[in-house]
Amino acid sequence: MLTGFNAADTIASVVIAILILPRAWSLLRDVVDVLLEASPKGVEVQMIREHILSVAGVTDVHDIHIWTITSGVPVFSAHVVVEDGVLNARGADQLLDKLITCLGSHFDTDHCTFQLEPASHSEHEAHQHA
32: Cβ–Cβ under 8 A, 6 or more apart, which residues? Predict the structure, then answer.
């Protein structure tokens, strides 16, 4: 109104929209990943599988699921087949501690859920596991 340049409001609005749009798009992608419980970026399931298999007493791992429950908070779950003798009261605790430490230190995953299964139970599992 002071300068008589009527297009000033339109130009200012377009500049502000151009500044906001990339950040809004990035935020929208993060929100969609959380809502769809997508796998975190850069996570390689095979590498996680190899780390779990390297823990003493573990013979196999299947039904691996990795997803994001909120931005920057990955969650992990898996069925871990272990030697039958490992599942005594003290052995299961120690094994879970090792698995949680392994994933937490190598893959920055604080929330892990493991279902421990004795090797003798594997014949009862369906053969569709990856």
Answer: 38
